[in-house]
Inverse folding.
């Protein structure tokens, strides 16, 4: 969820821009000439910086493979997540034709994280497994719980607005897929698969690790809104959502956390955004 992006265009703001763009999801690639034009807008400096960052992270994590999560993991996490969350990467490359920058860098940080902690670090805590019926039920339970917990205060504070604009079936499926892959997956990977499991291990208390990771997840949304009151409300609601996503991860793996997160964001964008 992202200030520097105008994060509402913040994390959710970019998500909203993303929703609008989904009406033409592959517009920059409709012709070979257009595709060539937009991709040649890539700044070579951005490519070099992204490549060097990825190699540095992978090398460091490979060297730390046999140790418990520690300073190397934290520094790698910060090096990948902070520039992405604050949209610094977008200053280097805003995406094909100046669009889809958030999606491009979401794929980048997700890919590097999966390679780093999954392949190089061989972390057993990522929660990646073949989805089971229980995982689907866990994600559904988290969605219903969050609807009951977040919609009433969201509407009463004016943070949410009942404004339904249901898309066509194909467009809605595309929206959910993009939210799952470029919003929910990187956020759940970084905050649940990594940060939450580390905090649980460092503190020796699963509930405390869950709370710490959820609060960090909530604070990530601080720059998404310009008004102080909205900042506080956004962070509070996101922290509560983080608790539900964390429990989804604990009992349903990464799949359940991603599905519940994507469903919450999708309902927000389609039915409850101003």
């Amino acid at each position: 969820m992202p200030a520097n992006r105008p994060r509402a265009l913040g994390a959710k703001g970019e998500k909203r821009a993303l929703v609008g763009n989904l009406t033409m999801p592959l517009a920059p690639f409709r012709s070979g000439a257009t595709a060539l034009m937009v991709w040649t807008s890539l700044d070579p400096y951005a490519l070099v910086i992204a490549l060097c960052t990825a190699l540095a992270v992978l090398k460091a994590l490979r060297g730390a493979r046999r140790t418990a999560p520690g300073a190397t993991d934290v520094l790698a996490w910060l090096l990948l997540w902070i520039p992405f969350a604050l949209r610094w990467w977008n200053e280097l490359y805003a995406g094909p034709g100046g669009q889809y920058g958030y999606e491009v860098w979401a794929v980048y940080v997700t890919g590097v994280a999966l390679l780093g902690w999954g392949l190089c670090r061989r972390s057993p805590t990522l929660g990646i497994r073949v989805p089971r019926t229980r995982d689907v039920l866990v994600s559904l339970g988290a969605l219903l719980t969050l609807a009951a917990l977040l919609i009433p205060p969201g509407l009463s504070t004016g943070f949410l607005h009942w404004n339904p604009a249901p898309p066509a079936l194909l467009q809605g499926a595309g929206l959910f897929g993009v939210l799952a892959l470029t919003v929910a997956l990187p956020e759940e990977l970084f905050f649940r698969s990594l940060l939450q499991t580390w905090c649980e291990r460092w503190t020796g208390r699963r509930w405390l690790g869950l709370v710490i990771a959820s609060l960090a997840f909530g604070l990530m949304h601080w720059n998404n809104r310009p008004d102080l009151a909205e900042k506080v409300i956004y962070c509070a609601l996101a922290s509560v959502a983080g608790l539900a996503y964390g429990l989804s991860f604990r009992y349903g793996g990464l799949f359940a956390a991603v599905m519940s997160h994507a469903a919450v964001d999708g309902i927000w964008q389609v039915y409850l955004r101003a």
